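Researcher: Going back to the complex we discussed earlier. I've cleaned up the inputs and rechecked each line, so this should be the final set. Can you rerun the prediction on the complete assembly and write out the structure?
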Amino acid sequence: MTSKILAAALLALGALSLDPAAALSKEYILTSTKPNTLVLVDPAARKVERTYQIAGPGAPLGIVPSPDGKIAYVITNHWGSLVGIDLDSGNEVFRADLSDGNIRARNMFGLEISPDGKEVFVMRSPVRLGQGEYEVQDVGIAVYRTDAGLNARPDRILPVPRRTTGLFMAPDGSRLYAVNWDIHTLDPKDGKVLKVDKVANWERPNYGVPDVFGVWNHYEQAKVFANPYFAVRTDLDPKDPAMARTGMLTLDFATGAVTMNEFENTSAVIFSSVVNPVRRNEVFSVYNTLSKTDTGTNQLVKRVTLPHTYYCLNISGDGKEVYVAGTISDIGIYSAETLERIGEINLPGGHDMGGTWIRMVQR
Amino acid sequence: MMHKSWRFVPMAVLALASAGLASAPSVQAKEPSAEAVLNTKCSTCHPRTATGGLFRIDEQRKSPEGWAMTVRRMRQWHGVILTDAETRNLVKHLADRQGLAPEEAEPFRYALERRTVVESPDDADLATLCARCHSYARAGLQRRTAAEWRRLAHMHLGQWPTAEYQALARDRKWWETVSGPLPEKLAAKWPIDSTAWKTWKARPSPNLAGDWAVAGHRPGKGDYWGRMEVKRSAADSYRLSYRLTWADGSTETGEGRSVVYTGFEWRGSTRLGAEQVSEVLRASADGGRLEGRWYLDDQDAVGATMVAVRGKQAIAGLSPAALKAGETTRLVISGNALAREVSLGDGLKVDKVIAATPDSVTLMVSASAGAAAGMREIAVGKAKAPLMVYDRIASLKVEPETMVARLGGNGGPVPHAPAQFDAVAYTADNLRIGPVPAKWSVGNFDETAEHDQDAKFGGVLRPNGLFMPADAGPNPARKNLNNIANLLIKAEVAEGGATVEGSARLVVAPQRWNDAEIR
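Model: Rerun complete. Updated structure for the full complex:
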């Protein structure tokens, strides 16, 4: 290493350690419970740090924190509005109602924020309520400026195929991934399709249409979308255990690379998955069981039964703890190494968490 | 712990209950006519079309329940304010003017009668595109123009935007199909115009007032027979009184009322003994026969078949409907204005006439060991009815063979939804002998159920085949899982020194939070 580079590295290190925000930064969990309550959790202390009551009806669905960890953008109002909650003051600092006049619109899962925190992307399914009839409209991604205040209107609407679920951004903000039957890579400025990776339309002899359905965005740690898929072998007897196969689809946000590989004959329902940011071949998956799979060898490493169903999960930045959530009223904490339950955090009120997400936020 | 969100449910349940189709017409003289309601309230959103009809409304036909469901949705979803009397008048008017002919409703009567069945759709595409969410019957009990089927598709995704994301939708271009080619297919299969409807609509509605003989069978309780007196209170509206005798010798009386829609769709509401029941019957074209099912208002899996006949020398039913060769059996033939002469055919001998009235003939009948097995026709005067003679019970079927019960109660607003089973005997030739008393037991349906001890947690099967599901909500004894279960319902009878067994599958499911007039 040349002295010049070493100096630069040391400088960078010094700058990092001297940055007061970074020095004080700590990892929190952001999730929600009913009724319409955003919850900030300190996982290290195993306790709820703070709750935020969101105005109006409904319960949170999607949650995206701003990159600086100061604001949480939350879908509420029965999937009809996006609100921004200041995590310090608790105030609503942003609001976008997706419906407009005789257009009734609902968010259909997809929610993402640009890496610079200036824009949020909301998957929107509208219907025109005419006189005596409904008229289904084309779906689209509504893009809002985050400084648009409490009566935000879309800056632009990007066309996208129907049935789009996940929206994810490349770390440099140059590409927006939209997961539908296939994965469309879009230019976030104008929605231009840059690339299509075939998923449901894959061309694999002797395989049926793979079922890929994930409605969460909890991929901030490894910056990889990982989602189970279920596929049927059409060349085998339906009674053959190898007929139904479970695989893992991954999409690397930085490179755009997509992989699809099966790891077992289907033997468990899986709702959602997350990649370990430290050992990036480790994928954790949740529903009635917690599974660890190795995407390097496409093997199931370990599976444990959970005390109840969980829909979604996330992982600590050091890759040591897995947090499962999203059904009853608790976050279960598991060792990424052993899959042992090493803790839990009960949410206030004992209400169910609905279709919420679980996000990790540094603040 | 999750009860707070339940507070919204009673409203929906209440709204459904108030849509009862047998409510008496309002006695208010100044109540607006259905036409007036259509012209003043409905036409606000459904304007007059070029042909003079009301947009959308005039392009569909359906059952009384179908119209009741539509009007309820207009109230719930679109805020139309209607009095209950206006709602009743509107449903009656629309079902009469744009209903279904008897043969159009016939294949799907099970849904109107609120029977739980595993449907057998005759179109695999429709089974997936439509009946993955609701019954096939719900669609099959409607007739629309192609444009109107298409508007219905738009309503579906507009009202339930998740519909295109669900399993069996996301594996195909569901929306593109249901809004594209499907409406034309539906309009050809279930068209707005039909000869059956044109013919039926021209017929006058029969006057069903009079004295009727009734008979039927209630699983878990047995056969019944008796009288129904029907008095006309207004056009197509009746007051009823029942006098019934049950096979166990008990008697029961009841008072009720009914409305007849579309000239044949009898919907009754009766207090029978201590129970409140709903009747869903169809009148024959000549007005001489009513047939269908009644069920308990709060437990619609519990109910009875019912046949009613009127006029001279008409048989309503036999109890039992089968006699065993080599045995002596008490046989009750019930009907209307019955003659005294009974002819049972070879091998059946009347040992004693226990009672003989115009309403029923009660006999002790000996069937010789050599009596010909199979169906035969017996006669009471000029009235005829089928009677089975059998040699032995060869097999036993539990009906319904697939059933759903639902958890309930436990402080929540949704009551338990029990399931009622009946053990039905068959001959070696697979001829139906009929319901027989059986010994009941419950087991786990498969290995998973065995592992989870479903039979222990799902509920209790009573000696009469009534399954009472367990409480709703988390069960601490089950690691806070709820009490859902996958069960095998078993019945056995002794026959000739051996045991004959039958079984059915029962799924104990969570509560039904949103019910509908047609599920």
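Model: Worth noting: Chain A touches chain B through 31 residues (CB under 8 Å).
Researcher: Good, that matches what I expected from the previous run.
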